[in-house]
Each structure stands twice: as C-alpha cells, then as structure tokens.
Amino acid sequence: MSAMSEEHGPDCTCGCHDYEHEHEHxxxxxxxxxxxxxxxxxxxxxxxxxEVDLGWASTILESxxxxxxxxxxxxxxxxxxAAKSFEALVAALKLIAQRVESAGGIVGHIKAYAxxxxxxxxxxxxxxxxxPACEGDVNLVLGPDVQCQLVVIALLVDLDVLExxxxxxxx
Length: 171
Description:
Layout: E1 19-24, E2 30-35, E3 48-53, E4 57-66, E5 69-78, E6 84-85, H1 86-102, E7 106-116, E8 119-125, E9 133-136, E10 141-142, E11 147-155, H2 159-170
Antiparallel strand pairs: 1-2, 3-4, 4-5, 5-11, 6-10, 7-8, 7-11, 8-9
C-alpha cells in the first residue's frame, strides 16, 4: 500500500485507496487485481508474486518493473509424472524471446538455471535471432527434486503482457 498522506489516517474510509479491477491480456490469461493504492495510477513497481500451475510443473512467479524494464522470475518445480528435460525449457526461453520481439519489445536477458545434486544446466538468451548459450547437462530431467529458476528481463513490454508470454511459453 502506498504511504498515506496526512489527510488520510489509518481509519480512513474515503475509498480512494482500495479498488478492484479485472482485465484480459493479449496472451489469453485473465487476472483480478485488488490494490491498496489510489485508483488514478497503477504502479507496477511493487512486486507481484503468485503460484501458477503449468500442468507439468508448479511455478512461483514474481514480476515487477524496474527502471522501465519488465522483469518476470520463476521458480519451477516439475511434477514427477510430467518431467521435461532442461533442453525443452531452453526451447521455451527461445519462444519467450520471439514473442517479446513480436509484441514490440526488446529482450534484455533471459536466463534459466537448474541443479540436481552435482548436475547442472544453464541457458542464456539475449536475442530471438541468436541461438541460446548453454552450459552443463541440457538433458537434465526437470523432476520434483531439481531446483530450477528462470528470469526474463524485457524493455518496451507491459508487465502483464510479459507475464502472459512467459506463462504461455512455459505451458
């Protein structure tokens, strides 16, 4: 919640702090927001965090805007029966880059990292036209015991659009 001015105390009931809205995005997901700030601006500077079921994995998604760069990070925990290889995740990173550019954005950086015991894999994408740079075991299976994180930083793309791109590309 944004800081209250002196005219609005903790028991203020004016209603200008609390509102709800729903909207649908180009990439097909809908969300419902409840905000605790004034309704004449929609500040994405604060981080949004939520858990999302991708079907093959559960994901904790965090998103925010920093200096006009939209950032979405995810911790991915694959379900045992639907495990994918890290290589499949790399293909999703490439798809994210292509969709960001198709939406008129600029890819800042897209990275993913996975570790299981001594095995690890790392991938980096900086341009949809270039092959992802990979290190480690790209055949590493993303099962429930594998720690897997990714981050997407993009310019000139609305945060809600970037979230939709990431979720659709990982599904």
